[in-house]
Amino acid sequence: MTTFGSVVNAISARSLGTAPPVVGEGCTELCWTDRHAGTVTWVSESGKSFRYRLDKAVRVDHNGMSECQDYRYEPGNGEERTARLTKRGWASNGTRLVTGYRETYHDFSF
Q: What is the DSSP letter of 23?
């Protein structure tokens, strides 16, 4: 069972976890408390797996170590990762994902 240290991540995993991925649209990795934005790059014919690449998130606010964070996203140049549909939603190497939007958040308390 996947657990989260963030209520927002837990709610997101339950309510948004299985939307069909679309090439070019966003996805978000849900970590313990952090979130990492990515872009869907390929979807299998069956729709049960997809590849994505993490975006480069550039912080655009001036709030310092705050929970109020705004980011601008640029295409990332890292390696592609593969996500598969499980009975609990999308997952990639044990990390839960949601599709349809991209969001980055860094929890400064950890």
A: T
Q: State pLDDT tens for residues 27-83.
A: 999 998 899 999 999 999 999 999 999 999 999 999 999 889 999 999 999 899 999
Q: Which of 74, 92, 75 is nearest to 83 (CA)?
A: 92
pLDDT band at 7 (very low <50, low <70, confident <90, very high): low
Nearest CA among 110, 86, 102 for reference residue 33: 110
How far is Cα 56 from Cα 26, in angstroms, rounded to an integer? Answer: 12
Helix (H, G, I), strand (E, B) or coil at 99: strand
CA 96-97-102 angle, 5° bins: 145
Tell me how far apart the alpha carbons of residues 38 and 82 are, in angstroms, rounded to a whole number: 12
